[in-house]
Amino acid sequence: MPYVSSASPPSPPAPSPTPFAADEIAAADARLAPWPQSPWPAPLRLDDGRRPNPLFTILPVSALAIGLVLLVAVAVILVMTRRAKPRLAMDATSSVNGDGKPGAPSSSCGSSVLGNPHNARCYAAAAAGCLYGGGRLGPLPLGLSVVQPRRSRGAQVFTYRELERATDGFSEGNVLGRGPCGVVYLGRLGDGTPAAIKRLQLDLRRQGEREFRVEVDLLSRMHSPNLVGLLGYCADQSHRLLVLEFMPNGSLKSHLHPGDGHPQQEPLKTPLDWRTRLGIALDCARALEFLHEHSSPAVIHRDFKCSNVLLDHNYRARVSDFGTAKVGSNKANGQVVTRVLGTTGYLAPEYASTGKLTTKSDVYSYGVVLLELLTGRVPVDTQRPPGQHVLVSWALPRLTNRERLVQMVDPALKGQFIVKDLVQVAAIAAMCIQTKAEYRPLMTDVVQSLIPIVKKSPVMSCSSTPVRPVQHVVYMSPLKRGSAGDMS
Questions:
Q1: DSSP 12-65
Q2: Which class for 428: exposed (0-12), middle (13-18), buried (19 or more C-beta within 10 A)?
Q3: What pairs with residue 296 in β-bridges?
Q4: Distance between CA 256 and CA 254 in Å, rounded?
Q5: Fewer CB near the last or first residue (10 Å), C or N of the chain?
Q6: Distance CA 63, CA 85 (A)
Q7: Helices 443-455 and 359-375 meet at what angle, rounded to 10?
């Protein structure tokens, strides 16, 4: 038997490994390498039957939406900024209160006013407080906000030399009136426009300075057919002048009391007739209604009298002289406590005794002017017999007596009036001069009471009392202010 070895047969030789290409090795290493650090989640392949990661759909859409919102917000901010720029000049003084400090640099506003577009820009700066051109003098006395002007032509900034030429060197022959606060001259501007140029006197207490600021601030913003318009002003160095609309028929005082306080003025030959007096009464009532009812808070004139009522070529009345005006309170009664200013005979009793000023103080002054229109007398006349020195105390008991009322009518009317209308106007006057302020009517009520009287007058057509255009509301911020002066 042949020998058989117990050892296992040798295994066949192992095959040699097949060499890999370099690119295959690199691909295998890339598959085995970990995912790189990334803020975005790793995508899932679609060939394995699973859905893709939803974040890859949400995040790009969210980023696009946020970008669009930011673009819209930037566009809105740009539009609002551009719209607000033209109003900066008007609204810059809306948060300013108090009296400014005296003293001002010379005006650098254009040397030529008429026909120079620079003046429009200069006045826009003046409304923001740059009354003196290159530098700001401090806050204006009144803080007012948006008002839409009625006139297309704004107030202009004049130089002293221009106004000096307009008045022929402030000639005495051009004097229209004098008062404690200055002189009013008749002038003719470069374009031929007649104007009343009010030259203020600056005293040591700077009362004229404050009156100048108040009048410029008010008249450049408040526009009514029953208020005297401001054409421009001058604030060169120490000169303060107001350029106002010229009223060819002068003041109401010069018609009712000719020569009183103005010896150089010749008495008018023809006195005011009844229909003209009714129209003046209605115009004055509308002016005060605008100040009281169409402003918030109300503006109190504080020196309403017949010398501050001016008449145009049609004898339509306009109220002037706002140097002592006061902005009322936002409280329910609108009461302001201030020092007493005004003219004797026109002051309301509560204001003269306590300094408490309300719109009803102007109502009392209006009642005194209404008595002057009816009687032709001055408020205080010491030349008359005892008991007749003060117009209000003499007229009040007669206003409710028909026979005595007819006897107290101005003799210059020569009986040319309607008794029924006289009784109704006297009743309005009696309510306005009541001793207690709460018994006096609102100026709106006075206007509504006078309108039917004026319209039904047989000698006065309805066209002579046109319906006034809608007047814009003026918003103001109250402040404390005091000034003096009485321009007759």
A1: PPPPPPPPPPHHHHHHHHHHHSPPPP-SSPPPPPGGGTPPPPTHHHHHHHHHHH
A2: buried
A3: 475
A4: 6
A5: N
A6: 34
A7: 30
Other C-beta atoms closer than 10 Å to the C-beta of 436 total: 9
For residue 150, count CB atoms less than 10 angstroms from its CB and return exposed for 0-12, middle for 13-18, buried for 19 or more.
Answer: middle
Q: Is the CB of residue 160 less than 8 Å from the CB of residue 241? A: yes
Mean local confidence (pLDDT), 227-251: 92
How many other CB atoms are found less than 10 A from the CB of residue 83?
Answer: 9
CB 397 within 8 A of CB 415: no
**8 A C-beta contact, residue 200 and residue 181:** yes
3-state secondary structure of 427: helix
* Paired residues of 183 in beta bridges: 178, 199
Domain extents in the chain: 97-246, 249-480
Strand partners, 198: 184, 242
Name the 3-class secondary structure at 239: coil
Residue 141 has pLDDT above 60, yes or no: no
How many helical (H) and strand (E) elements, i.e. helices and strands, does the chain have?
Answer: 14, 15
pLDDT tier at 291, thresholds 50, 70, 90:
very high
- At the fourth CATH level, which superfamily is domain 249-480? Transferase(Phosphotransferase) domain 1 (1.10.510.10)
Q: Are 167 and 176 in contact (CB under 8 A)?
A: no
| Distant-in-sequence, close-in-space partners of 287: CB < 8 Å, separation ≥ 6 | 224, 226, 227, 317, 318, 319
Phi, then psi, of 17 in degrees rounded to 5: -65, 145
Catalytic residues, which ones?
303
- Greater confidence (337 vs 230) lies with 230
148-157, 321-330, 476-485: the lowest-pLDDT one: 476-485
Name the CATH superfamily, with its identifier, for domain 97-246: Phosphorylase Kinase; domain 1 (3.30.200.20)
Only one residue has tokens 């309005």, namely: 428
3-class SS shares of the chain: helix, strand, coil, % to 5:
40, 10, 50
Nearest-angstrom CA–CA distance, 342 and 316? 24
Burial of 1 (0-12, 13-18, 19+ CB in 10 A): exposed
Q: Assign residue 390 a region: left if phi > 0, alpha if psi is -120 to 50, beta otherwise?
A: beta
DSSP 324-380: T-EE--SSSS--EE----S-TTTS-HHHHHH-EE-HHHHHHHHHHHHHHHHH---SB
